[in-house]
Amino acid sequence: MAVDKYNARDVRFQIESYLSPGTWVDIAPLAINTWSKSEEEETADITTFGSAGQAESWKQQVGRSLTIEGFRLRDPATGALDPGQALVEAMNDRLGPDSLTGFRFAHTNDTTWVVWAKARITLGDTGGGNNDPTSWSATFTRSGASSTAAKP
Question: In terms of pTM, does the model score above 0.90?
Answer without folding.
Answer: yes
